[in-house]
User: What shape does this take?
Amino acid sequence: MPTTSRPLHFPPTFHWGVATSAFQIEGAALEDGRGPSIWDTFCHQSGTILDGSTGDVACDHYHRYASDVDLIASLNVDSYRFSISWSRVQPLGYGAWNERGFEFYSKLIARLAEKNIQAHITLYHWDLPQGLQDLGGWLSRETPQRFAEYAAEVARRFGSQVASIATHNEPWCTANLGYGNAQFAPGVADRALSIQVSHHLLLSHGLAIKAMRAVTGDAGPQYGIVLNQWPADPATASPADVAEAQWEYARSVEWFMDPIFKGHYPQRALDRMDLSRFHVMDGDMEIIQQPIDFLGVNYYTRTFVSTDNPPKARPGVLGFTDMDWEIYPQGLTALLVGLKEAYKDLPPIYITENGMAAADHVSNDQVNDQARIEYIQMHLQALQAAMEQGVDVRGYFYWSLMDNFEWNSGYSKRFGLIYVDYATQQRTLKESAYWYRDVVQSQRQEK
Ligand code: FCB
Assistant: This one.
C-alpha cells in the first residue's frame, strides 16, 4: 500500500478524537438495573453473530471506564465520542429513569473533564430498549416520541457538561441492516418496512433536536446527527452503470441528507422504492428539517457499481481491510466536496468515524499494525484535501479507541488503536496508537 509523504497541516482549532459505542464496549449487560436492548436479544439468538458471542461482557468498560479514560488521555486526544445505552438509563425505553445508569455516565463525563477531554454523546447507536421493541419498535410512530423524551432527559442532565449530542448513529444501518436484510437487530428482512423505519428514525431525530433545544436553549451543546456515507462510483460511463450508481447514492446518502437539509426525500430514490408501507404525515418533513449545528460523517469505503455480468473489477485497488472493505481514501475527498456542492446550508462537519479492521496480534507486548497507520495517514491526507477545497471540517475521530464487539462479526474484527485480550481484558497500545498520539502532538505544536 503506497503512502505519500505529504505533510499534514490541520488548523489549530481542529479536534482530534477517538470513538466507541455503548453496546460494543460496556458489557455489564444486566447490572445496576439496566434493561435489555434489541442487541442483547439478537445476540442471544443462535446463528446471528459470526463467532456466537454476545455483548454481555464486551470490553468490560462499565467497570474499567476510569482506566480507559486514562488510556484515552495517553493518546493526547482532546475529544471522545461515546454513546449512551438507552436501556441503562431507562430500562424499558419509557417510564422510570434508572439513576444508577445515569450515574455511570456522570462519572465517565467527570473523568473526561478531569483530563480535559471533551465529551461527544451519541444518543442512539442501535441499541433500542427491548421494552420499546415489544411495543412495535421503530415501526411505531410512538417510538420517536419516546426517543424525544429520552433525548430531553439526557440534555437536561448532561447538556451543560458535554460538547455535543448527536441523535442517531448511522440510521441507514438500523433501517437497512436491521429491517432490510436481517443482518442486525431486530433481524427483520422486509425492504418495504425498512423504508418506513428510516422515516421514523428521521422523524425521531427532528423531534429530539426540538426537545433538546427546548431544554437547554442557546446555552446547550452542539446538536447534530451522524450519518454513514460513501460515494457510489460507476464502473464505466455507460448509462446503466451511471444510473445504478446514482440510485445507490440516492438510497444511501441523499435519502437521509435531503430530508434534513432540503425538507424532502430524493425523487430518484422514491422512483425505485417499494412505497407500500411508506406513510409521511403532514408536518413530518418540517420536523425533520430542523437546523442542526453539525453533521457527523462516518467514512470507511466507497461503493463500486457495475451492471455487467460478471461485474467489472475495481481498478487500481490499494487493498482491502479485514472487513473486505476497499481502502479508498480519495473517496473521502470526493464525498465531502460533493456534499458541499449539493447542500447550501451545510453545518460544520466532523468525521465521527474512520478506521480499519485488521487481523492484529500481540507479539512481545507489541502490536505491529503498519497497515492501519497507512490507512489513517491516507485518510487524513484526503480529509486535508477536502478542507483545502473549502469543506468546513472541525474534527476527526478514529474508530475505534479499542477493539470491541463488531456487531454481527462479534469479536472477530479488530478496529482498535488499542488491542483487547478478551480473556484477560488486558489492553495493549498498538503501533498505530503511538503513531496517532504523535500526529496529534505534532499538529498541536504547530498551533
Ligand atoms: C460503523 C458503526 C460502528 C462500527 C464501525 C466499524 O458502521 O457505527 O459501530 O461498527 O462501523
Notes: The first helix runs from residue 22 to 25. The first strand starts at residue 15 and ends at 19.
